[in-house]
Automatic annotation (TrEMBL):
Pfam families in UniProt: Pribosyltran
Occurrences of domain Phosphoribosyltransferase (ranges): 152-223
Transmembrane segments: none
Protein name in the entry: ComF family protein
Family: Belongs to the ComF/GntX family.
């Protein structure tokens, strides 16, 4: 009764379409949920994305949940997650994608989720790492551990966009370090980020982690441009 009254005065709205939510809906309305532009890369047998973005690194799986379109719903969701403090959006999308992956035979594909870290300064400014939110949701529905104390970002980097491949590579050199590498031993690692744009950040993370005795490594992002 009381929550219905609150809804009437302060209608909760869908983060993606801004229409009022029904009482049984949270954050994203049912219409938007079924309307999300998915890549469905996990249903493809060939690792096409890996060829496109990652020339030299060996990736087991290259996955991305949603297609990022300028002005679209995914852009709004990403904006909420990155700049509006809406951490629950990332967690919820992580849970949804994790459930889809589990249903498609990925239940045992990974042992450990590692989100791409922010630099300490950026983390303090924003108050949270948006990739942690997504990792947490994935971890819940895939029932595997996630840790943000292994891969550490040592330096802040400028934007990768409008840089050549060599410049991007130099820009990302020695950005990440690995703490407690024994926790990686013989593990199937999946590195998780919010958006895949040039792939340079993820490639650098993968190279840093590959230097240790892992079993295999994959990348997974919430959205891709
Ligand atoms: Zn909606």
């Amino acid at each position: 009764m009381f929550s219905a009254f609150i809804d009437l005065i302060f209608p909760r709205i869908c983060t993606a379409c801004l229409e009022p939510l029904q009482r049984n809906e949270e954050i994203i309305c049912t219409d938007c949920r079924f309307d999300l532009p998915k890549t469905n890369l996990h249903l493809e047998t060939e690792n096409t994305l890996a060829h496109k973005f990652f020339g030299e690194v060996q990736l087991k799986h290259t996955l991305s949940y949603l297609k990022f379109v300028k002005g679209g719903k995914v852009q709004r969701l990403m904006h909420e997650l990155k700049y509006k403090g809406n951490q629950e959006v990332g967690e919820m999308l992580g849970r949804w994608y994790g459930a889809e992956l589990r249903e498609s035979g990925f239940a045992d594909a990974f042992d450990l989720i590692i989100p791409v870290p922010l630099h300490q300064k950026r983390l303090l400014l924003r108050g949270y790492n948006q990739s942690d939110c997504f990792a947490k949701g994935l971890s819940e529905s895939l029932n595997i551990e996630w840790r943000n104390d292994i891969l550490i970002r040592e330096t802040e980097t400028s934007s990768q966009v409008n840089k050549s491949r060599l410049e991007r590579y130099q820009n990302m050199d020695k950005v990440f370090t690995v703490k407690n590498p024994e926790l990686l031993r013989n593990k199937k690692i999946v590195v998780v980020d919010d958006t895949l744009t040039t792939g340079a950040t993820l490639e650098s993370c993968v190279l840093s982690l590959q230097a240790f005795e892992i079993k295999d490594i994959s990348i997974l992002t919430l959205a891709m441009a």
